[in-house]
Fold this sequence. Notes:
The chain is an alpha/beta fold. It folds into three domains: about 5-105 and about 170-200 and about 335-415, Rossmann fold (3-Layer(aba) Sandwich); about 120-165, no CATH class; about 250-330, no CATH class. Helix content is about 50%, strand content about 10%. The protein has helices at about 15-30, 50-60, 70-75, 80-90, 110-120, 125-135, 140-155, 160-165, 170-185, 210-220, 235-245, 255-265, 270, 280-290, 295-300, 310-320, 325-330, 345-360, 375-395, 405-410, and strands at about 5-10, 30-40, 40, 45, 65-70, 100-105, 190-195, 340-345, 360-365, 410-415. The strands form two sheets. Strands 1, 2, 5, 6, 7, 8, 9 and 10 form an eight-stranded mixed sheet that branches. The chain has a two-stranded antiparallel sheet with strand order 3-4. Strand 1 (about 5-10), helix 1 (about 15-30) and strand 2 (about 30-40) form a beta-alpha-beta unit. Helix 2 (about 50-60) runs antiparallel to helix 11, helix 4 (about 80-90) crosses helix 9 and helix 5 (about 110-120) packs across helix 9 (about 170-185). It is globular.
Amino acid sequence: MKVIGFITEYNPFHYGHKYHYEISKKLTDSTHTIAVMSGSFVQRGEPSLIDKWTKAKIAIDNGIDLVIELPFIYSVQSAEFFAYGGVSILDSLNIVDYIAFGSEIESLNPLRKIASILNNEPPKYKEFLKEYLNKGNSFSSARSQALSEYIKLSNPNDTTPYDLILKQSNNILGIEYLKSLNRLNSKIKPISIKRKGNNYNDIEITTNIASATAIRKKILSGNLDGVKDHIPPATYYYLNNFYKKYGTFNSLSNYNQIFQYIFRSTDKSKFNRIMDIENGLENRIIKASSDEIQIEEIIKSVTTKRYPSTRIKRILVHLLSNLDKETIQMIYKTPVNYIRVLGSNQKGLEILRNIKNNSNVNIITKFADHKSLKSEEIDLMLSYEEMATNLYFLGITKNKPLVNMDYKLSPYITKDI
Length: 417
């Protein structure tokens, strides 16, 4: 058995994802695949378009062997925390040979070099970083500029376009995967696959392999059939079924009234306990909420060069779920000691048997069973998971409440391979 792992969102699963896992398997000669997938909310600070069980079905029916949930506490964080959560889970299994991720450049060498600098943080780099932060740049922008300056200073003959590399979303996430592998001293081998088709943030569909952003935009505009040729048949089938069942797809705009309640009832001191709130940002958010009712308009008015929209949206999801900075930092220092299965085919069941023989992680297939494990860490992680799921369905159900779905829905297990 040779296992390759992916850290994914599949929001939704499209032909770019299919190409990525197929070429990754071929290049590594892997026999089995694992996807660690975000669930109810995603890294951009938004609810998933469809629920996590539907996403798992789509992934399995498109060829992934085992889908494991990326815990909510990791899934709605910056690239660093998001990557660390996924990598630490894959590493804890003790059976994963490779991790594959997409990038805009394919070559691992420049990404490795950047990851090494970020892990070691030389004094001159930190000096550059402070300088660019003081100029009002966002952390990610300041970091990119500081890295470019540091590499130019230390390696003047290196002509690699690091400034461009550090502006591209998949490269940035790939660097964080490499950082996490180094931090964990992991034996998992990284492989980078060059991204094909539209760029990650492209909002229009111009190639057969469209970005998930463009696909979501078209779907949320009410044009599901408009993406039919850009997603695998299984993806379209489940998306169509989801819409027939709920009459909507999920988005932040479904929470307008809830956010208005939060803005009007939450003490300012609570804002300051939220990750990434700084320099009076809470005042900007509260002020914007008094001028606008639509959450997307509030986000636009608060967004600046220093505070990009994805950061604002993650802050809002943390407020929505009462996820504070102290909890995030505590979890970040705590080794992962469980996995939760969302979907599997028969090869996925083989993987699970192999995990049982090689790892001490607890495997949760039935949500209620976590209580018998008597682990405070697992209970805490899954309490946020339960809250996130309840919040997710609150966004898409208008007439009949759907609660405690973690207890009611089971993993998708198929006899197919």
